[in-house]
Specification:
Urease, subunit C, domain 1, TIM Barrel, 2 domains, eight-stranded parallel β-sheet, globular, binds zinc ion
């Protein structure tokens, strides 16, 4: 029988002092208490779009359960308790096969089962137009059928699914209501949908937009483009990559003024070099290089080929761009994605997994962040460039 463990810290949202007690991986109680004024507790992060992590590529045909465990533990180290492995455009049978394979491992490994909270399928029902298809293989884009959608649901069992589609592609508007009826959350992305097509997708039940500001050409029509149309549609929950690079700081700030920030879900959209030391990696058949700035590039090129953002880093970069407290943005990387996907949002309650981050500002404006997963300390990260920023605390 394990003994109780306890920490005194202030709730990141309400600010009240708490005595948090856990045992055998589960929270036992959270009681009001005097707590140090500058030690904070927050639920561990949730990321809905992770293509790979810690040098492990989830779409690799050679992926093993041990590698998946390594990726999960590296995500844990970086403050993220749960995430959605993301499988991008490929032959449909391969995508569904990847879901089945990793799900099979989840049934054998409690640690994988606890960490993998759902699936994000990004493609192949998206735009093949250069610029809009981004790094996806345009020749693999196809029209969806009801059979595709039923097969995906069957492969994933009861787990949450986020499916990114382009509503202007033939057949997509027809399958959205079926996907929604099967509990799939539909996101729009890699799309040049008209305002009318976006409205039709929303009427069919689409709720989200995948990495707003990305998945579109470098140059857009200044009068009418996909970013303006999504902002005007007002009905969608946009995902944002808060690394300061995929969305420029001015655009990031403007988006937070014109879209209700309660609608955003932040994500790394990480590719496998994320969470690994800087160096060179193979992405499919292409060699890429990750510098100390955590940007993934083809060697010698200036444009980026993916994000190597770490979840905790995303929180602090977002706060820095917005000139607000990390406390204000934390929920956009925890509560808000969970709410959109129908995951448990009452993470700080007795009986729930003891998955949380403790941020200690007592020594410096730059915190030390300790992450606990299942009540066990997984990492202590001094935050190099992380600051509490202006605002609430
Ligand atoms: Zn994408």
């Amino acid at each position: 029988m394990k003994t109780d463990e306890t920490i005194l810290a202030r709730d990141y949202a309400a600010g009240q002092g708490l005595r948090v007690t856990w045992r055998s991986g589960k929270l036992v109680s959270l009681e009001p208490s005097d707590a140090p004024s500058d030690i904070w507790i927050a639920p561990a992060l949730t990321d809905l779009q992770v293509n790979g992590y810690g040098a492990v590529a989830f779409s690799s045909p050679k992926l093993t359960a041990e590698e998946m465990l390594k990726a999960v533990r590296t995500m844990h180290r970086d403050g993220c308790a749960q995430f959605f492995p993301t499988f991008t455009t490929d032959d449909w049978a391969k995508i569904v096969g990847r879901v089945r394979r990793v799900r099979g491992w989840c049934n054998q490994h409690p640690e994988l089962r606890a960490a993998i909270a759902g699936w994000h399928i990004e493609g192949p029902f998206m735009s093949p137009i250069p610029g809009f298809c981004g790094a996806h293989a345009k020749e693999k884009m196809v029209s969806p059928t009801p059979a595709h959608i039923r097969e995906l649901r069957e492969a994933a069992g009861d787990a949450p699914i986020l499916l990114t589609v382009a509503p202007e592609q033939a057949g997509v508007l027809d399958i959205i209501p079926l996907a929604v009826s099967l509990g799939i959350r539909v996101s729009l992305g890699h799309t040049n949908a008209s305002a009318g097509e976006i409205a039709s997708a929303v009427r069919g039940g689409a709720v989200s937009f995948t990495h707003l500001g990305n998945g579109c050409p470098q140059t857009l029509d200044r009068h009418d483009n996909i970013v303006w149309r999504v902002i005007e549609a007002e009905a969608l929950h946009p995902g944002l990559i808060p690394d300061g690079i995929h969305v420029s700081p001015p655009l990031f700030r403007i988006l937070h003024r014109v879209v209700d920030p309660a609608r955003f879900w932040y994500t790394t959209d990480a590719v496998h070099p994320a969470g690994a030391p800087p160096g060179r990696f193979m992405m499919g058949k292409t060699e890429v290089e990750v510098g100390p700035d955590q940007v993934v590039r083809k060697p010698g090129a200036s444009n980026f080929a993916g994000s190597a953002l770490r979840p905790l880093e995303g929180v602090f970069r977002a706060a820095e761009m917005l000139g607000c407290s990390w406390r204000e943005v934390w929920r956009r990387y925890s509560l808000q994605p969970r709410k959109m996907m129908g995951l448990d949002t009452d993470q700080f309650a007795p009986g729930k997994a003891a998955d949380f981050c403790v941020l200690d500002f007592t020594m410096s404006e730059k915190p030390t962040v300790v992450t606990y997963i299942g009540g066990e300390k997984r990492s202590t990260l001094p935050a190099k460039g992380w600051m509490r920023s202006a605002g609430m605390a």
